[in-house]
Specification:
The complex is a heterodimer of chains A (about 120) and B (about 110).
Chain A: E1 3-7, E2 10-12, E3 18-25, E4 34-39, E5 45-51, E6 60-62, E7 70-75, E8 80-85, E9 94-104, E10 107-113, E11 117-121
Parallel strand pairs in A: 2-11
Antiparallel strand pairs in A: 1-3, 3-8, 4-5, 4-9, 5-6, 7-8, 9-10, 9-11
Chain B: E1 4-7, E2 10-13, E3 19-25, E4 33-38, E5 45-49, E6 53-54, E7 62-67, E8 70-75, E9 85-90, E10 97-98, E11 102-106
Parallel strand pairs in B: 2-11
Antiparallel strand pairs in B: 1-3, 3-8, 4-5, 4-9, 5-6, 7-8, 9-10, 9-11
The chains are: A mainly beta (about 120), B mainly beta (about 110).
């Protein structure tokens, strides 16, 4: 059974940093691209970024709203995905989801999602 | 960036109704579109990918179609467990974007 379990969320002051983790199990983690998606309270879904697999040199893509502040990384030996968030502001308050990608016809769809971890940026 | 416009944003329907949700892309995205269902307090669930392919385990009452830059999610006979918010998503290019969502509520 595919499982994605996020951790590391919590309350942080504006300007602060936080590192989210996602523990993956039930599939060959190293084969898959992985993404982070967030959802502000009462709002819609926003893609945060993606990290590709080793075959694609672990390259990353980011949304403009987080580029330069957030960094996605992975440790295939630990089946883990990370999101390092720096220079946080109140607009970053959201539930953050770890997502597994499913490749199909050259695109990677989001087939499994974690339960999410809440990040609150407030003074 | 590609914009996805979902309509309606809110829908009131009864069990057994046929429901249609539309998603319009601001430019050509081929068939690189997915639909997700999200229930309150839960993570989204993939329903349809590549515009019309049903994800494994998803009931056949859900279907997707495409015509140019207009995409449609249809629920042929609404069931009690289908009351939720639905999102479309395009994966044609970066940044990946989502539609604003359609909340389906009980009439």
């Amino acid at each position: 059974e595919v499982q994605l379990v996020e951790s590391g969320g919590g309350l942080v002051q504006p300007g602060g940093s936080l590192r989210l983790s996602c523990a993956a199990s039930g599939f060959t983690f190293s084969d898959h691209y992985m993404d982070w998606v967030r959802q502000a309270p009462g709002k819609g879904l926003e893609w945060v970024g993606r990290i590709r697999n080793k075959a694609k040199s672990y390259t990353t893509q980011y949304a403009a709203s987080v580029k330069g502040r957030f960094t996605i990384s992975r440790d295939d030996s630990k089946n883990s995905l990370y999101l390092q968030m720096n220079s946080l502001n109140t607009e970053d308050t959201a539930v953050y989801y770890c997502v597994r990608d499913y490749p199909h016809s050259g695109r990677h769809y989001f087939d499994y999602w974690g339960q999410g971890t809440l990040v609150t940026v407030s003074s | 960036d590609i914009q996805l416009t979902q309509s309606p944003s809110f829908l009131s329907a009864s069990v057994g109704d046929r429901v249609t949700i539309t998603c319009r892309a601001s430019q050509d995205i081929s068939s690189h579109l997915a639909w997700y269902q999200q229930k309150p307090g839960k993570a989204p669930k993939l329903l349809i990918y590549a515009a019309s392919t049903l994800q494994s385990g998803v009931p056949s009452r859900f279907s997707g179609s495409a015509s140019g830059t207009e995409f449609t999610l249809t629920i042929s006979s609404l069931q009690p467990e289908d009351f939720a918010t639905y999102y479309c998503q395009e994966l044609n290019s970066y940044p990946i974007t989502f539609g604003g969502g359609t909340k389906v509520e009980i009439k």
